[in-house]
Amino acid sequence: MRATREGSAWIAKLMDSIDAGRFEEAERMLPNLMGDEDPLATVLEAEVHLYFCRLERARECLAQVNPWRLNVHSLPRYLTVLGQLYVEQGQWDSAEEVLDGACCICKLLEARCHLARGLYHLGAAKLKRGRGEDAEALWERAKALLADEETARGDFMLGVIEYALGAWRAQTGRVEEARASLQSSLRLLDEEHGRYYASALGALGAVLVACGQCAEAIEPLREAQYILARYALGDHLADITNTLAMALVRLERFAEAEQALSESLGVLQRIGHGRGLGRTLKALADVYLERNDVSHAEQSARLALEHAEALGDDRLRAEAQLLLGRAAARRRDHEAAEAALSVAREIARGLGDRKLEGLACLYLGEACCATSPLKAQELIACAQELLRPLADPQIEREIERVSQRATSERIRLTPDNKLIFDGNFLPNWYVARETLERFLLKNALRQAGGNLTKAGELLGITKVHVHNLRRQFNL
Q: Domain containing 276 — which CATH number?
Protein backbone atom coordinates (compact mmCIF):
# COMPACT_ATOMS: atom_id res chain seq x y z
CA MET A 1 0.00 0.00 0.00
CA ARG A 2 2.84 2.33 0.93
CA ALA A 3 4.62 1.61 -2.38
CA THR A 4 1.41 2.46 -4.24
CA ARG A 5 1.12 5.80 -2.41
CA GLU A 6 4.78 6.60 -3.15
CA GLY A 7 4.29 5.71 -6.82
CA SER A 8 1.24 7.98 -7.04
CA ALA A 9 3.20 10.80 -5.42
CA TRP A 10 6.03 10.45 -7.95
CA ILE A 11 3.51 10.38 -10.82
CA ALA A 12 1.92 13.59 -9.53
CA LYS A 13 5.33 15.30 -9.22
CA LEU A 14 6.34 14.15 -12.69
CA MET A 15 3.08 15.40 -14.14
CA ASP A 16 3.54 18.81 -12.50
CA SER A 17 7.08 19.10 -13.90
CA ILE A 18 5.95 18.20 -17.44
CA ASP A 19 2.95 20.53 -17.35
CA ALA A 20 5.16 23.44 -16.20
CA GLY A 21 7.72 22.73 -18.95
CA ARG A 22 10.48 21.53 -16.60
CA PHE A 23 11.47 18.57 -18.75
CA GLU A 24 15.05 18.15 -17.51
CA GLU A 25 13.65 17.84 -14.01
CA ALA A 26 11.03 15.40 -15.32
CA GLU A 27 13.69 13.24 -16.97
CA ARG A 28 15.61 13.00 -13.70
CA MET A 29 12.45 11.68 -12.04
CA LEU A 30 11.89 8.81 -14.50
CA PRO A 31 14.08 6.25 -12.64
CA ASN A 32 11.77 6.63 -9.62
CA LEU A 33 8.92 5.14 -11.68
CA MET A 34 10.78 1.97 -12.70
CA GLY A 35 8.43 -0.95 -12.26
CA ASP A 36 5.36 1.21 -11.62
CA GLU A 37 2.34 -0.61 -13.04
CA ASP A 38 0.19 2.50 -13.41
CA PRO A 39 -0.18 3.02 -17.21
CA LEU A 40 -0.15 6.79 -16.62
CA ALA A 41 3.52 6.49 -15.62
CA THR A 42 4.29 5.03 -19.05
CA VAL A 43 2.32 7.80 -20.79
CA LEU A 44 4.33 10.43 -18.90
CA GLU A 45 7.59 8.71 -19.83
CA ALA A 46 6.51 8.85 -23.49
CA GLU A 47 5.86 12.60 -23.09
CA VAL A 48 9.41 13.17 -21.87
CA HIS A 49 10.86 11.16 -24.77
CA LEU A 50 8.73 13.12 -27.26
CA TYR A 51 9.97 16.44 -25.89
CA PHE A 52 13.55 15.35 -26.54
CA CYS A 53 12.57 14.01 -30.01
CA ARG A 54 13.25 10.37 -29.08
CA LEU A 55 10.37 9.14 -31.20
CA GLU A 56 11.22 5.44 -31.19
CA ARG A 57 11.35 5.28 -27.39
CA ALA A 58 8.10 7.26 -27.13
CA ARG A 59 6.45 4.84 -29.56
CA GLU A 60 7.67 1.85 -27.50
CA CYS A 61 6.22 3.37 -24.34
CA LEU A 62 2.82 4.08 -25.86
CA ALA A 63 2.67 0.57 -27.36
CA GLN A 64 2.79 -0.79 -23.79
CA VAL A 65 -0.27 1.21 -22.69
CA ASN A 66 -3.70 -0.40 -22.65
CA PRO A 67 -6.11 2.56 -23.01
CA TRP A 68 -8.87 0.56 -21.32
CA ARG A 69 -6.89 0.62 -18.09
CA LEU A 70 -6.79 4.42 -18.03
CA ASN A 71 -9.31 6.42 -16.04
CA VAL A 72 -11.31 9.28 -17.54
CA HIS A 73 -8.71 11.86 -16.46
CA SER A 74 -5.72 9.93 -17.82
CA LEU A 75 -7.29 8.92 -21.15
CA PRO A 76 -7.23 12.41 -22.78
CA ARG A 77 -3.58 12.76 -21.78
CA TYR A 78 -2.77 9.45 -23.47
CA LEU A 79 -4.68 10.50 -26.60
CA THR A 80 -2.90 13.88 -26.70
CA VAL A 81 0.53 12.26 -26.43
CA LEU A 82 -0.40 9.69 -29.08
CA GLY A 83 -1.63 12.51 -31.33
CA GLN A 84 1.61 14.40 -30.80
CA LEU A 85 3.56 11.29 -31.83
CA TYR A 86 1.43 10.97 -34.96
CA VAL A 87 2.14 14.64 -35.81
CA GLU A 88 5.88 14.04 -35.43
CA GLN A 89 5.60 10.99 -37.72
CA GLY A 90 3.55 12.80 -40.37
CA GLN A 91 0.41 10.66 -39.84
CA TRP A 92 -2.00 13.56 -40.14
CA ASP A 93 -5.32 11.67 -40.33
CA SER A 94 -4.52 9.59 -37.25
CA ALA A 95 -3.25 12.68 -35.42
CA GLU A 96 -6.44 14.65 -36.05
CA GLU A 97 -8.66 11.73 -35.08
CA VAL A 98 -7.08 11.08 -31.67
CA LEU A 99 -6.56 14.77 -30.88
CA ASP A 100 -10.21 15.51 -31.65
CA GLY A 101 -11.10 12.75 -29.18
CA ALA A 102 -8.77 14.17 -26.53
CA CYS A 103 -10.23 17.65 -26.95
CA CYS A 104 -13.81 16.36 -26.64
CA ILE A 105 -13.04 14.59 -23.34
CA CYS A 106 -11.16 17.62 -21.95
CA LYS A 107 -14.11 19.82 -22.85
CA LEU A 108 -16.52 17.51 -20.99
CA LEU A 109 -14.19 17.49 -17.97
CA GLU A 110 -13.79 21.29 -18.20
CA ALA A 111 -10.01 20.76 -18.14
CA ARG A 112 -9.17 24.09 -19.79
CA CYS A 113 -5.38 23.82 -19.71
CA HIS A 114 -5.36 20.28 -21.12
CA LEU A 115 -7.93 21.29 -23.74
CA ALA A 116 -5.64 24.15 -24.79
CA ARG A 117 -2.79 21.67 -25.11
CA GLY A 118 -4.87 19.37 -27.30
CA LEU A 119 -5.89 22.31 -29.49
CA TYR A 120 -2.23 23.33 -29.86
CA HIS A 121 -1.21 19.91 -31.19
CA LEU A 122 -4.34 19.71 -33.37
CA GLY A 123 -3.33 23.09 -34.85
CA ALA A 124 0.18 21.74 -35.48
CA ALA A 125 -1.35 18.86 -37.46
CA LYS A 126 -3.49 21.29 -39.49
CA LEU A 127 -0.45 23.48 -40.22
CA LYS A 128 1.59 20.50 -41.43
CA ARG A 129 -1.24 19.73 -43.87
CA GLY A 130 -1.04 23.26 -45.28
CA ARG A 131 -4.13 24.55 -43.45
CA GLY A 132 -2.47 27.42 -41.61
CA GLU A 133 -5.62 29.52 -41.17
CA ASP A 134 -7.39 26.62 -39.45
CA ALA A 135 -4.34 26.15 -37.22
CA GLU A 136 -4.33 29.84 -36.25
CA ALA A 137 -8.02 29.70 -35.33
CA LEU A 138 -7.38 26.68 -33.04
CA TRP A 139 -4.41 28.41 -31.40
CA GLU A 140 -6.47 31.53 -30.76
CA ARG A 141 -9.13 29.36 -29.10
CA ALA A 142 -6.47 27.72 -26.97
CA LYS A 143 -5.05 31.13 -26.02
CA ALA A 144 -8.50 32.35 -24.91
CA LEU A 145 -8.89 29.27 -22.67
CA LEU A 146 -5.68 30.18 -20.82
CA ALA A 147 -6.57 33.86 -20.24
CA ASP A 148 -7.29 33.32 -16.52
CA GLU A 149 -4.89 30.40 -15.95
CA GLU A 150 -2.30 32.13 -13.76
CA THR A 151 -0.23 29.03 -13.03
CA ALA A 152 3.15 27.66 -14.12
CA ARG A 153 1.46 25.15 -16.42
CA GLY A 154 -0.73 27.90 -17.87
CA ASP A 155 2.30 30.11 -18.57
CA PHE A 156 4.15 27.24 -20.24
CA MET A 157 1.25 26.27 -22.49
CA LEU A 158 0.51 29.89 -23.37
CA GLY A 159 4.19 30.40 -24.22
CA VAL A 160 4.12 27.43 -26.58
CA ILE A 161 0.96 28.73 -28.27
CA GLU A 162 2.41 32.24 -28.63
CA TYR A 163 5.47 30.68 -30.28
CA ALA A 164 3.26 28.80 -32.76
CA LEU A 165 1.26 31.94 -33.55
CA GLY A 166 4.43 34.00 -33.96
CA ALA A 167 6.07 31.50 -36.30
CA TRP A 168 2.90 31.26 -38.44
CA ARG A 169 2.42 35.02 -38.59
CA ALA A 170 6.03 35.47 -39.64
CA GLN A 171 5.46 32.93 -42.41
CA THR A 172 2.47 34.91 -43.66
CA GLY A 173 4.31 38.26 -43.63
CA ARG A 174 2.67 39.79 -40.52
CA VAL A 175 6.01 40.85 -39.10
CA GLU A 176 4.96 43.10 -36.22
CA GLU A 177 2.33 40.65 -34.99
CA ALA A 178 4.90 37.87 -35.23
CA ARG A 179 7.50 39.83 -33.31
CA ALA A 180 5.01 40.65 -30.49
CA SER A 181 3.90 37.00 -30.20
CA LEU A 182 7.47 35.69 -30.12
CA GLN A 183 8.64 38.21 -27.51
CA SER A 184 5.64 37.26 -25.35
CA SER A 185 6.52 33.60 -25.86
CA LEU A 186 10.10 34.13 -24.68
CA ARG A 187 8.90 35.79 -21.47
CA LEU A 188 6.47 32.96 -20.74
CA LEU A 189 8.96 30.18 -21.60
CA ASP A 190 11.89 31.55 -19.62
CA GLU A 191 11.54 28.82 -16.98
CA GLU A 192 11.37 26.05 -19.59
CA HIS A 193 14.46 27.46 -21.37
CA GLY A 194 14.64 24.40 -23.60
CA ARG A 195 13.14 23.16 -26.85
CA TYR A 196 10.30 25.67 -27.15
CA TYR A 197 12.28 28.64 -25.80
CA ALA A 198 15.05 27.93 -28.31
CA SER A 199 12.50 27.55 -31.12
CA ALA A 200 10.96 30.92 -30.21
CA LEU A 201 14.44 32.49 -30.21
CA GLY A 202 15.08 30.97 -33.63
CA ALA A 203 11.76 32.22 -35.02
CA LEU A 204 12.48 35.72 -33.70
CA GLY A 205 15.95 35.56 -35.27
CA ALA A 206 14.37 34.55 -38.59
CA VAL A 207 12.00 37.55 -38.40
CA LEU A 208 14.94 39.87 -37.79
CA VAL A 209 16.85 38.37 -40.74
CA ALA A 210 13.83 38.77 -43.01
CA CYS A 211 13.62 42.44 -41.97
CA GLY A 212 17.29 42.95 -42.82
CA GLN A 213 18.34 43.21 -39.15
CA CYS A 214 20.92 40.45 -39.45
CA ALA A 215 23.35 41.82 -36.85
CA GLU A 216 20.55 41.91 -34.22
CA ALA A 217 19.58 38.31 -35.10
CA ILE A 218 22.98 36.76 -34.35
CA GLU A 219 22.77 36.72 -30.53
CA PRO A 220 19.32 35.04 -30.22
CA LEU A 221 20.21 32.56 -32.96
CA ARG A 222 23.51 31.60 -31.30
CA GLU A 223 21.76 31.12 -27.95
CA ALA A 224 19.12 28.94 -29.62
CA GLN A 225 21.83 26.90 -31.36
CA TYR A 226 23.62 26.33 -28.03
CA ILE A 227 20.45 25.12 -26.29
CA LEU A 228 19.44 22.78 -29.12
CA ALA A 229 22.95 21.33 -29.47
CA ARG A 230 22.94 20.62 -25.72
CA TYR A 231 19.62 18.82 -26.01
CA ALA A 232 20.68 17.17 -29.33
CA LEU A 233 17.37 18.14 -30.95
CA GLY A 234 18.28 17.47 -34.58
CA ASP A 235 15.42 19.01 -36.60
CA HIS A 236 15.31 22.21 -34.58
CA LEU A 237 19.11 22.51 -34.47
CA ALA A 238 19.31 22.23 -38.26
CA ASP A 239 16.65 24.92 -38.79
CA ILE A 240 18.19 27.38 -36.32
CA THR A 241 21.75 26.86 -37.60
CA ASN A 242 20.60 27.40 -41.18
CA THR A 243 18.99 30.72 -40.21
CA LEU A 244 22.15 31.71 -38.32
CA ALA A 245 24.29 30.87 -41.35
CA MET A 246 21.99 32.94 -43.57
CA ALA A 247 22.36 35.94 -41.26
CA LEU A 248 26.15 35.58 -41.19
CA VAL A 249 26.32 35.25 -44.98
CA ARG A 250 24.31 38.43 -45.43
CA LEU A 251 26.82 40.14 -43.13
CA GLU A 252 29.59 38.62 -45.33
CA ARG A 253 30.95 36.68 -42.35
CA PHE A 254 31.38 33.55 -44.44
CA ALA A 255 33.96 31.77 -42.28
CA GLU A 256 31.70 32.06 -39.21
CA ALA A 257 28.74 30.74 -41.20
CA GLU A 258 30.75 27.75 -42.39
CA GLN A 259 31.99 27.08 -38.84
CA ALA A 260 28.46 27.22 -37.37
CA LEU A 261 27.22 24.73 -39.97
CA SER A 262 30.23 22.44 -39.50
CA GLU A 263 29.64 22.36 -35.72
CA SER A 264 26.00 21.40 -36.25
CA LEU A 265 27.00 18.73 -38.78
CA GLY A 266 29.19 17.18 -36.09
CA VAL A 267 26.31 17.04 -33.59
CA LEU A 268 23.86 15.71 -36.19
CA GLN A 269 26.29 13.00 -37.34
CA ARG A 270 26.88 11.97 -33.72
CA ILE A 271 23.17 11.51 -33.04
CA GLY A 272 22.52 10.01 -36.49
CA HIS A 273 19.93 12.58 -37.56
CA GLY A 274 19.65 12.15 -41.34
CA ARG A 275 17.01 14.81 -41.96
CA GLY A 276 18.96 17.45 -40.06
CA LEU A 277 22.15 16.44 -41.86
CA GLY A 278 20.48 16.90 -45.23
CA ARG A 279 19.18 20.37 -44.40
CA THR A 280 22.51 21.47 -42.94
CA LEU A 281 24.38 20.23 -46.01
CA LYS A 282 21.95 22.26 -48.10
CA ALA A 283 22.76 25.36 -46.03
CA LEU A 284 26.48 24.67 -46.40
CA ALA A 285 26.02 24.55 -50.18
CA ASP A 286 24.34 27.96 -49.92
CA VAL A 287 27.39 29.36 -48.12
CA TYR A 288 29.80 27.91 -50.68
CA LEU A 289 27.74 29.39 -53.49
CA GLU A 290 27.82 32.82 -51.85
CA ARG A 291 31.62 32.48 -51.71
CA ASN A 292 31.56 31.48 -55.40
CA ASP A 293 33.10 28.09 -54.51
CA VAL A 294 31.04 26.27 -57.11
CA SER A 295 32.66 22.81 -56.85
CA HIS A 296 32.17 22.58 -53.07
CA ALA A 297 28.63 23.98 -53.44
CA GLU A 298 27.76 21.22 -55.92
CA GLN A 299 29.34 18.56 -53.71
CA SER A 300 27.32 19.63 -50.64
CA ALA A 301 24.12 20.02 -52.69
CA ARG A 302 24.49 16.48 -54.12
CA LEU A 303 24.98 15.06 -50.61
CA ALA A 304 21.86 16.95 -49.49
CA LEU A 305 19.98 15.52 -52.48
CA GLU A 306 21.08 11.99 -51.52
CA HIS A 307 19.67 12.52 -48.02
CA ALA A 308 16.45 13.93 -49.50
CA GLU A 309 15.99 10.90 -51.76
CA ALA A 310 16.69 8.48 -48.90
CA LEU A 311 14.23 10.25 -46.59
CA GLY A 312 11.57 10.97 -49.22
CA ASP A 313 11.83 14.67 -48.29
CA ASP A 314 10.44 16.59 -51.28
CA ARG A 315 11.15 20.03 -49.86
CA LEU A 316 14.82 19.23 -49.31
CA ARG A 317 14.94 17.62 -52.77
CA ALA A 318 13.63 20.85 -54.33
CA GLU A 319 16.08 22.98 -52.35
CA ALA A 320 19.02 20.77 -53.36
CA GLN A 321 17.97 20.86 -57.04
CA LEU A 322 17.68 24.66 -56.78
CA LEU A 323 21.28 24.86 -55.57
CA LEU A 324 22.53 22.45 -58.22
CA GLY A 325 20.80 24.56 -60.86
CA ARG A 326 22.35 27.77 -59.58
CA ALA A 327 25.79 26.15 -59.46
CA ALA A 328 25.40 24.87 -63.04
CA ALA A 329 24.42 28.39 -64.13
CA ARG A 330 27.62 29.72 -62.54
CA ARG A 331 29.53 27.26 -64.73
CA ARG A 332 27.47 28.55 -67.67
CA ASP A 333 26.06 25.08 -68.22
CA HIS A 334 22.62 26.43 -69.11
CA GLU A 335 21.17 23.06 -70.06
CA ALA A 336 22.01 21.45 -66.70
CA ALA A 337 20.87 24.58 -64.87
CA GLU A 338 17.49 24.64 -66.62
CA ALA A 339 16.95 20.92 -65.99
CA ALA A 340 17.67 21.13 -62.24
CA LEU A 341 15.73 24.36 -61.73
CA SER A 342 12.71 23.03 -63.63
CA VAL A 343 12.63 20.01 -61.30
CA ALA A 344 12.88 22.33 -58.27
CA ARG A 345 10.01 24.45 -59.60
CA GLU A 346 7.71 21.49 -60.18
CA ILE A 347 8.34 20.04 -56.72
CA ALA A 348 7.80 23.43 -55.06
CA ARG A 349 4.55 23.90 -56.98
CA GLY A 350 3.37 20.49 -55.80
CA LEU A 351 4.19 21.42 -52.21
CA GLY A 352 2.38 24.75 -52.51
CA ASP A 353 5.55 26.55 -51.38
CA ARG A 354 5.36 29.97 -53.04
CA LYS A 355 8.78 31.12 -51.84
CA LEU A 356 10.58 28.05 -53.14
CA GLU A 357 8.64 28.12 -56.41
CA GLY A 358 9.38 31.83 -56.80
CA LEU A 359 13.12 31.35 -56.28
CA ALA A 360 13.16 28.45 -58.75
CA CYS A 361 11.38 30.65 -61.31
CA LEU A 362 13.80 33.51 -60.68
CA TYR A 363 16.96 31.47 -61.17
CA LEU A 364 15.41 29.52 -64.06
CA GLY A 365 14.74 32.88 -65.70
CA GLU A 366 18.35 33.85 -65.14
CA ALA A 367 19.55 30.57 -66.68
CA CYS A 368 17.32 31.18 -69.73
CA CYS A 369 18.62 34.72 -70.37
CA ALA A 370 21.23 33.58 -72.89
CA THR A 371 19.06 31.02 -74.68
CA SER A 372 15.50 32.32 -74.56
CA PRO A 373 15.13 35.98 -73.51
CA LEU A 374 11.33 36.05 -73.85
CA LYS A 375 10.95 32.97 -71.67
CA ALA A 376 13.36 34.51 -69.18
CA GLN A 377 11.24 37.64 -68.88
CA GLU A 378 8.08 35.56 -68.30
CA LEU A 379 9.77 33.50 -65.59
CA ILE A 380 11.14 36.58 -63.81
CA ALA A 381 7.69 38.21 -63.86
CA CYS A 382 6.22 35.00 -62.38
CA ALA A 383 8.93 35.01 -59.68
CA GLN A 384 8.14 38.62 -58.79
CA GLU A 385 4.46 37.77 -58.37
CA LEU A 386 5.23 34.81 -56.11
CA LEU A 387 7.91 36.52 -54.00
CA ARG A 388 6.43 40.03 -53.62
CA PRO A 389 4.38 39.23 -50.44
CA LEU A 390 7.54 38.15 -48.56
CA ALA A 391 9.01 41.68 -48.46
CA ASP A 392 12.48 40.20 -47.91
CA PRO A 393 15.21 42.78 -48.74
CA GLN A 394 17.71 40.09 -49.80
CA ILE A 395 15.22 38.47 -52.18
CA GLU A 396 14.26 41.88 -53.56
CA ARG A 397 17.94 42.55 -54.33
CA GLU A 398 18.21 39.20 -56.11
CA ILE A 399 15.12 39.99 -58.20
CA GLU A 400 16.64 43.35 -59.16
CA ARG A 401 19.97 41.74 -60.07
CA VAL A 402 18.40 39.07 -62.28
CA SER A 403 16.01 41.57 -63.89
CA GLN A 404 18.88 43.85 -64.81
CA ARG A 405 20.80 40.97 -66.30
CA ALA A 406 17.81 39.88 -68.37
CA THR A 407 17.30 43.34 -69.83
CA SER A 408 21.00 43.84 -70.56
CA GLU A 409 21.66 40.42 -72.14
CA ARG A 410 23.50 41.06 -75.40
CA ILE A 411 23.95 37.52 -76.70
CA ARG A 412 21.07 35.18 -77.35
CA LEU A 413 20.37 31.77 -78.79
CA THR A 414 17.30 31.55 -81.03
CA PRO A 415 14.89 28.58 -80.98
CA ASP A 416 16.33 27.40 -84.33
CA ASN A 417 19.83 27.08 -82.76
CA LYS A 418 21.38 30.30 -84.06
CA LEU A 419 23.66 32.42 -81.88
CA ILE A 420 22.94 36.15 -82.30
CA PHE A 421 25.42 38.95 -81.53
CA ASP A 422 23.89 42.42 -81.81
CA GLY A 423 26.58 44.76 -83.18
CA ASN A 424 24.73 47.79 -81.79
CA PHE A 425 25.04 46.45 -78.21
CA LEU A 426 28.46 44.83 -78.06
CA PRO A 427 28.92 42.22 -75.30
CA ASN A 428 31.94 41.79 -73.06
CA TRP A 429 34.81 40.29 -75.11
CA TYR A 430 35.51 37.35 -72.78
CA VAL A 431 31.83 36.52 -72.29
CA ALA A 432 31.31 36.58 -76.06
CA ARG A 433 34.33 34.34 -76.71
CA GLU A 434 33.31 31.80 -74.06
CA THR A 435 29.71 31.78 -75.31
CA LEU A 436 30.82 31.22 -78.92
CA GLU A 437 33.29 28.46 -77.97
CA ARG A 438 30.63 26.65 -75.91
CA PHE A 439 28.05 27.00 -78.70
CA LEU A 440 30.42 25.71 -81.41
CA LEU A 441 31.73 22.82 -79.30
CA LYS A 442 28.28 21.69 -78.19
CA ASN A 443 26.97 21.62 -81.75
CA ALA A 444 30.11 19.96 -83.15
CA LEU A 445 29.90 17.18 -80.55
CA ARG A 446 26.20 16.73 -81.32
CA GLN A 447 26.83 16.50 -85.08
CA ALA A 448 29.81 14.16 -84.54
CA GLY A 449 27.84 11.87 -82.22
CA GLY A 450 30.27 12.58 -79.39
CA ASN A 451 33.36 11.57 -81.40
CA LEU A 452 36.17 13.99 -80.44
CA THR A 453 38.20 13.48 -83.65
CA LYS A 454 35.22 14.18 -85.91
CA ALA A 455 34.21 17.19 -83.79
CA GLY A 456 37.75 18.55 -84.16
CA GLU A 457 37.60 18.10 -87.93
CA LEU A 458 34.31 20.00 -88.10
CA LEU A 459 35.84 22.90 -86.16
CA GLY A 460 39.31 22.74 -87.68
CA ILE A 461 41.03 22.07 -84.34
CA THR A 462 42.81 19.06 -82.85
CA LYS A 463 41.23 16.25 -80.85
CA VAL A 464 43.27 17.39 -77.81
CA HIS A 465 41.87 20.92 -78.11
CA VAL A 466 38.32 19.51 -78.26
CA HIS A 467 39.02 17.37 -75.20
CA ASN A 468 40.36 20.37 -73.24
CA LEU A 469 37.40 22.56 -74.18
CA ARG A 470 34.91 19.85 -73.27
CA ARG A 471 36.51 19.46 -69.85
CA GLN A 472 36.59 23.25 -69.37
CA PHE A 473 32.88 23.59 -70.15
CA ASN A 474 31.90 20.32 -68.46
CA LEU A 475 30.14 19.06 -71.61
A: 1.25.40.10
